[in-house]
Amino acid sequence: CVLCGRTDDCPEKYGEKRTYVEYNLTVHYYCLLMSSGIWQRGEEDEGVDGFLITDIRKEINRAAKLKCNICKKKGASIGCVAPKCKRSYHFPCGIQRECIFQFMEDFRSYCWEHRPVQKFADKELRGASQCTICLDLVEHLPVYAVLKSPCCKNAWFHRECLQYQALSAGIFFFRCTVCNNKDKFQKEMLRMGIHIPERDASWELEENAYQDLLHCYQHCDVKRCLCKKGRDYNEPDSKWEIKRCQYCGSRGTHLACSSMTSWEQNWECMECRSIFAKSGKYSKQKKRPLATSEKTNGTTCLLEEPPPKSPRQSAGSPCNILLQSSKIMCQNLSPCSPLELPASNRVTMSLSPVMSNRNLSLRHKHLREQRTEVCNILKELKVQVKTKTTRLNINAENIWSSALKGFRQRIFSPTNTIEVNFSNCKNTLKTNTSAASKHHFFQLLMLHLQNSSLFEGSSGKNLSLDFQAVKENLYFEAGKMIAVSLVHGGPSPGFFSKTLFSCLVHGPENVEPALEDVADADVAQTIKMIKYANSLSSLQSILQDCCEFLAAAGCLRPVTDLCDKNVLVNDILIYHVIKRIALPLESFRQGLKTLGVLEKMQVHPDVFSSILCHKPERLSAETVCDLFTIRSSSNVNKLKGAGFWMGYLQDVESGESVVTLEDILLFVTGSCYIPPIGFDPEPTIKFLHIRYPIGNRLRNCLELPVTKTYQQFKNKMEFTIRSTLGVERE
């Protein structure tokens, strides 16, 4: 190179090395670009990318008089732009001495003493985390080789990894790998000397780069193929359909040849099985869909069935299972109403009369007070929501994909009022207000998230590690959906574990996980064996058997005393429950920041724990009674009607009615649950001289008839509610 004098050909470090025979000139592109005494005075096709040959000759002559402050040789064409700084250096020498070169605006250069630095809080400069590009650990240190994301609190990178990523992704695809922020991230990386080329991504420029993806492997590889038409025969939707290995995808089998009765079953080839067996890695089972239609005593109804415990992968296992889209089969019943269930399937509770003294337990009373406080906090956040509407077209049979599409559309804004339109679902619950559709949509969405592969565990769930979901930024979208649901009147998730909630509120570095947080049965068993080892020899034997797992977790160390097992167990728990899911957790936290929800969680952790970590209490007669405000023009009607109303609620609760409390709420508001933010407007009751009850969902008003006897009142209530909801479901 005529400017630095080196023969190195390293495009990643020095830019492309170009030779121009006609000008007798060889130059590194970055050496030319960063030289202090030359500008692009020509067009792009003139000289060398706009640098005129005459200007390049002049710059060579100017640099020949300057000595490099690093290698002490002549030809230092780059100078520090800091005032009063006289240092000059070659571009490769500057890289070696950790100078900063800004590939933007005036292409400034800063020496090692005056270079820009990132500012860190003292508490950030401790520990280490995964570089989200190479997945190796990066120490949190204020050094040249380490860079911190400006948009994510816990995202740290190796400078070299970032530079390779920028060169590959180009200006259109280079962004934060955690939250997908582009503008703020690129601005900070350019300031810190990362070169982002103004071109399309390398994978987009390669001709026929995706050609191989169009070919599916179609061959039966089992030892004994039963298909008479040959190993290459494939007939979809039959027993001769070819199923590919769930791990490598490069081996296949006919369903019949491997005794599989359904396409939903997983299959692994012999090569993958042997690899997993030898490595000791733990396999991952496919997760069940969200819910299915079940028949109870001849009546079709949608019941939420908890999925079986699904073991998770340990560190290093391949994780290529996509987030599944559940199919909600809406039949004759809404998913929240057990209207047609026989009495034997109802849960009945004996309660004291509503008008008597309320003997609630201290715990339930405290939980109710917390939820009242949450309601007020969420109402404060709802002030941000504008009257401008955004319509989401939702397919109830594919709730996740349609919700994801709606939330990612360009016109979607969390501060707009959301309207939901259910489409392509013949049997979905039909309601007469947009509020009812929105309530139903958010309920289906929260149920899907609870049973999706983004979370693991039985009751209290933690985040799982799904690399495909990380790549598609699904953890961010899940956090965003939960935040939007809370502020826009949807249900709370109610399935967070205390550990997950503490990680979100207090930070993962301040959380100590427990054995109950480990969803992988094999990992949990390994930890138990270590924890309950009763001798040093048995402990060492156990560690020898699972040494590969411990090495992958970074917990493999010499054990010389039995008491060392306690520290080891704690380290394994911290790795498996917290460190392993650092990327999903940070992305999930960013999503929860939508509409300021995470900030409120951090300020009021106790009250938000009541709705995020606990399912809402089952509706009681007292709860429904307190929910409605009775308004009537006649005190006589109000007093008599209130007695009938409260007596009817007690009958419904004790199972002496064909409807449920959820049905009553659905009849009036279009929702079978009480949202954490409450109803808007607040539900009211009016007693009027009408024949049958009327549920006004636009105003959340229940208009009740004035009757002479309680039995007349009860008959009219049950006939109207049952008939109305039955027609809607048909």
UniProtKB/TrEMBL annotation:
Keyword terms of this UniProt record: Ligase, Metal-binding, Nucleus, Transferase, Ubl conjugation pathway, Zinc, Zinc-finger
SUPFAM superfamilies assigned: FYVE/PHD zinc finger (SSF57903), Hect, E3 ligase catalytic domain (SSF56204)
InterPro entries named among the record's database cross-references: EPHD, HECT_dom, Hect_E3_ubiquitin_ligase, PHD-type_Zinc_Finger, PHD_PHF7/G2E3-like, PHF7/G2E3_ePHD, Znf_FYVE_PHD, Znf_PHD
Species of the source: Certhia familiaris
Region annotated Disordered, chain positions: 286-317
Residues covered by the PHD-type domain: 1-115
Gene Ontology terms, MF aspect: ligase activity; ubiquitin-protein transferase activity; zinc ion binding
Any one cellular-component term (Gene Ontology): nucleus
Gene3D superfamilies listed in its UniProt record: Hect, E3 ligase catalytic domains (3.90.1750.10), Zinc/RING finger domain, C3HC4 (zinc finger) (3.30.40.10)
Main location: nucleus
PANTHER family in the record: G2_M PHASE-SPECIFIC E3 UBIQUITIN-PROTEIN LIGASE, PHD FINGER PROTEIN
Pathway(s) where this gene product acts: Protein modification; protein ubiquitination
Localisation: Nucleus
Protein name: G2E3 ligase
